[in-house]
TrEMBL record:
One of its GO terms (cellular component) is membrane. Keywords: Hydrolase, Membrane, Metal-binding, Metalloprotease, Protease, Transmembrane, Zinc. PANTHER family: TRANSMEMBRANE PROTEIN 177. This is Transmembrane protein 177.
Amino acid sequence: MADKAVRILVRLGIGGMLAVNLSGELFPHQICKQMYGLKDEKGMLIEAPELCLKQFREVALKSELNNPEKVSLFVSKAFHAISAGSTLLPSGAVIGLPRWYLNRAKSDVENSGIKFDGKPITWDSELGQTLTESYLPTENMIAFTIGHEISHIQRLDFKMLEIFASPLWLYLTFKMCSLIPKIWKLHGALDMLLKLSICGLNYLCYKFMKQKVDHWSEFIADEMSAMCEPKVAEGGVEYFTRRIKLNLIQYKLLGEEGRKFYTDEGDEIKSHTHPKLTERLGKLRKIQLRTDLSKNSSQDR
Ligand SMILES: [Zn+2]
């Protein structure tokens, strides 16, 4: 009876995970865009600015993106970019740009309502100036972000892993637990303890592997974007340099509290799905150096 109930729960879990993971990719307009899209006071989605659309057209061409007309750009209400779907699917793909990519002048940042530690910002302070600099995107930064998200929508291998990894983990864990009584005839508490240990260990392995794959996917997306053109690589270096600088200032100003969120190098402690900012910056600088060297050598010829 208990076994039957567990089996039903596992089936429901696998079905639920597949449904959630697949629907995000199959219906990017209805789910990702609606959930993350920045809306005006009438509830209408805010259109992506022409500057961003122009960068998209250029980067899509350089990235050799198939069917770029099937990508819809939008402004996200979050401070980071997001994407879902694929141009190979009938419903296409969406790319959400950080809301601060709408900022065009210093005054836009100052009027954006950003607060620090719950208090208004003194804009001529070191923090105020760094915030203004950090939240004013350059064309190259916009191009880099778009290139990064284009890589995410192009890489179907990573998408498959993202969709099937969690249901597969649940299925394999269940299978391993059901094999135990056939191998060892354990009773009561011991049997339960072994099954719980398998669940725990499998979960730790899954978490470890998922983080490795997520980080790998981020590095590849950074690389694909930066390889488009030297100015896009420059945009990536600029993006991470500014973010690290802002984190370092917050680390300094928040004192003891800051140590919970940032390292003394400017990395974000609580960010597990993305690699360290300093590592990403280091890799981008190497790509930038390589592309600059090849550009110079082709000019010399
Ligand atoms: Zn990414």
